[in-house]
Amino acid sequence: MFEPRKYAEWLHSEVFQPVIVVIGTAQAKTRVKEVNGLSLAELFAPFGGHSQYGISVSVQSLERQITIDNLRVHFTDADAALQLSALQADQLAAWTVESSALENASRQKALEPPSPWYEQWRSALFRSLRWSDHEGLDQPTAAMLVVMSKEAEPAMLLEQLLHASNMPPLCTQGILDPVPSRVAVLLHDVSDPESPNEDELTQKLTDLKTRFAPNQVYVLQINRGSAEVEPEIEELFRNFSSNRHAPPPPPAPNEGAACAASPGSRLSSDDVKSVAQVVAEVVVRSAVPWMEKQLQQLEAQISQTRKGFRNQLKYLWRKPREANERGEVVQEDSGAYPLHSVEGQMRLAGDISFHLRDYEVALGYYRNVVSDFKQDRSWKHAAGAYEMWGLCTYITNGARSERNRCMESAYEHYLQASSSRLAMRAVVLHQAMVSDLKDAALRLMKVNGDLADSNLRNALILEQAGQLYYTCAAPRKGAFHLVLAGHTYNKLGFKRLALFSYQAVVDLYLGKGWFHISDHFHFTMARQANRLGLKDESLSHFLELLNSFADADKKIGIQAERENTYIEEFLYVIKDWVHKRCGEGETKTIDLQIPRIQPEVRVRLLDDVECSREAMSPKNGDEVAAAPWDALGEKMLGITTEDRLELNWRQRSDPRIFDTLRRVTTVGAEVVVEVTLTNPMRVKWEMAAVRLRGQLQSTDGVAEEVVFASQDVTLAPLESRTIKLMAVPQKEGLLQIQSVTWNLFDCRQVICDRPFQLKGRRLRNTLEQRASKSGVYSGDLRLELKVRSKKPRLSAQLQGLQLIELEGVTRVPRLLQGELHKCSLVISTETDCPLAFLHVAASYPGVALDAPEGYEGLEVDFREEGLRLHGTFPRELRVPVLVCINASGLHSVRLLVLAEALGDGPKSEQRQWITLEEQIRVEPALSMTARPSPSYAADGRILFSCHLENRAAEALQVQRVLCYSGSSGSSQLPFQASSQGGEIVIQPGQNAQLLYTLQWPCEQIPAAQSTRSRLLQANRAAHLALSAASKRSSRREKEPLQMAPPVDLVVQWRQGDRAGEACALQVPLERPEAPPCPLDLHLLAPEVAEMEADLMVPVTVRIRNASLAGSVSFYFVAESTADIAWIGCERSEIISLPPNTSHSATLHAYFAQPGVYNLNRFRLFVVGMPSGSVPASEQAPLAFAVPFERLLHVTAGAEKIRGSMKHVEHERRLDIL
């Protein structure tokens, strides 16, 4: 849209221009066409103000002087001054639009109005409507009569050309003035050998000036250049020769040899200047003066007819042009107004004034004549007058309502006159004015409904309306109309324009979930581009279509047949594209996002655990967690940061570790990358030669390509599968795995390359990082591996754990609680890399490692966490492992193997960590609890009450019970059973009570170090650590003093060929959690006594020093009551007892009547305590009462009982009576 000033410039440069007719002899036309590739009009056309050769003039329009900076004129051949037919106009429009589409094949802003092909179609529309009989805008202002200098008698030829029959048809029909200004041009071809010499040329020019007006005769010399046309000159003439007429018909088969000359051939820069000078003189001296003079004459004639009171009265009585002189009815728009009619004169005067830029005068003429046309029912003439009226109103900044009314009236009257092309011109001119975009779009849609003939015009209208809707903030409506335009283009065969329409709107539907629409767009654009030969563009649209299926949000249901059609046509385009773009053996890479690659990418090295059996084992909520790998590594030796990160990765598999960790592998070792592929389509997807791609950055800085192993993969519809891709580095360096590639179906020359896009953790340290919408992420180094040759290459596995299979499902090993199970850790090496040491550690205390046997030159160093080996290592090493787990549940047993190679360099790059983890299900078996108690029969003897319970499903045979020192696992204590007997068999669910004695202190029996002893020591250490942790969590302020070391009790059992142990660890020799009183009180007395006269029951009081810290001094007191009296010493003397010794005294109890009595009526008064205990003295003794009951039932005699029963019966009978 143009504002008024720009609008006027556009009208005079493209739509309406003064016309200069070129009339030449046949020889002149032929010579210029053959030599210069131009017609006579095309020879002068570029210099009519359309190029850098502008023409500035000052004109006189009636009483007004007007300066025109760049006057543009239109040159036309007299024999081509005809209006094109509808068919020719459609051919011209189609050819122009198609040519413009080819020139703008890479246009990106297709949503900005107007499109280039719309502008070219608009120009073609204006050209096709020239020489219309209802307007005088194409009135010839000058006629250039051209003859060749070599022709005989040029003066006579010019006189022949002066005849009115040589003028355009509208001039001969009297509609336009047939006598414009005439100019004679003597054309001299310098390159023609038949052309006269300079003297002859001068003589002929003199003769012509004698016969004609001297200032109207020009000589023009051309073809002074070489045979090769200059690019600037060719471009200058090509713009005016390629779009003036409809495309020529194809040449006949026998005419293909002749090749037309290029536009502007043989013309030099001097020739161009000469032509420009002649054109300027013709315009300034002939065309403009003629228009000024003609306007004056027309104004005089119009004034004579219409001005004055008399003429006004005559005009009021003017009859419409409905009947001719014979009385015959004249049909509407049956003829034009001749120039001698006042209506024709007024229209021509208005058009000349418009050319001279005198818009106010032109506006007056159009206003006055439009009423005459309407009165005569000449709708086309009225529409033309309304049209020019609206243009002048807009240029002169008239009222908007006036111009809109005029342009709408012009459109309606053109339709009423059945002139659809002229109606379209009125709409196009109206659209170029500045107006509301929505109103402009609605105007176009009205035209589309009125002129619905489904041709190119309707497609362009829909496209222009869609662009206007989009610009006025109605994108959905705009996109809808653009889609309709593309559909219409497609039906009419304009595939390229349809492609542009779909391309303009496809981005508007992306990201909104309208997958059906976007799929239709991409599929249609792909097919259209392929038919147009745009193979690259067709392929890109197919890739967009197929890649949309990789969108996780695309959950629509598309039939498998439709998806299969997509793939078949995609493969056809791929093969055609390869055939035309690829040479023999050449490959092409495309960006195809199917199948979808999940972001979880795992890299496994040789020593990584592929899959833990924990995933296959049932969970019952009784899992026992294992120690972390890094904690186990810390026990082995001081690890580096790289080692800790490596162990942390195996523990947690946290991708954040790869922010700084770059793992190390061995030369020749397999690097496995696990990738999960998902087929999002409902058809089978085949991939050939799936492999990794990367490079090996060697130590010398040279990047070498790495050849990776390949495999064929076929994914079923909607299938997800994890595949393992392998790489084997063959030299030291930095291995960088970059992408995964494969061949598409059977197209071996087409490679799909999908780079790995791994992101580390999101960084939130700085304000910029936190404020970033897309996020700032750290690097991920999991696909970058350091390859070293001086690194061990070992493999390890635990053999001997039998797996139990139930219903075909692999389960974890099952052991009984405390079962001693022997297995082997097999460590093998694949290289000859010398080792500095080999360290094996176990995370669980129930796993003990033994020294390998039968290997010479191998030193073993037992440590708390395992063992370390030095010396010469064989190819295969078997380390005995003894497993004994004393708690039921699911246990994770971990073995950590560390191998370090000899050599200089970073230790972390010379170490290999092997992590083995087994899930073992432990079923309940034999459990034991032991409670110590002092023996009152012998001093220093401790009784152990061992309670055994069989929780297994089968009977267990108890063999023996062993006692070990709780501080040294290698010292065995003399432990004796209280009763002799054979082995005890405990049935499932049954208990057994065993009593053992231990004389303390005793002599300890040293035992040799064995796997069982180390196993016991490890279990004791774990028990102590657990006890210490529980005591810390309970927050006790003071721990009781414990002088005697505890003991460990071990019960050995057997079940068929399975043997095991049940342990009671850290059993104390003194009372657990001893109270403040260091003395134990024990009363010996009968349970039942018969009441008789002078009954006295003997009671033995035995007091024992339960403290092992030192001697205790005390005395005791027996308290008498009303029911019981003590006969003897009620208060003893002060007694001193050494540790674990006792004192006995016998008293007699006297009872007054039968009953149940508590004999515990004794109180202990401590007057001396061991050092470090609570102080006590005779003046301030510590009084204690031992809180237990010793009951004695005193019964009455038999006779007394029978008498009392008779008395009770007698009383009952009396009550009844």
Automatic annotation (TrEMBL):
Superkingdom field: Eukaryota
Under InterPro entries, the record lists: Ig_TPPC8_1st (IPR058541), Ig_TPPC8_C (IPR057651), TRAPP_III_complex_Trs85 (IPR024420)
Query: What is the protein's name according to its record?
Result: Trafficking protein particle complex subunit 8
Could you tell me which residue ranges the TPPC8 C-terminal Ig-like domain spans? Answer: 1097-1166
Q: What sequence ranges are listed for the domain TPPC8 first Ig-like?
A: 662-801
Query: Where does the record place Low complexity bias?
Result: 254-263
Pfam families given in the database record? Ig_TPPC8_1st, Ig_TPPC8_C, TRAPPC-Trs85
Q: Where is this region: Disordered?
A: 241-266
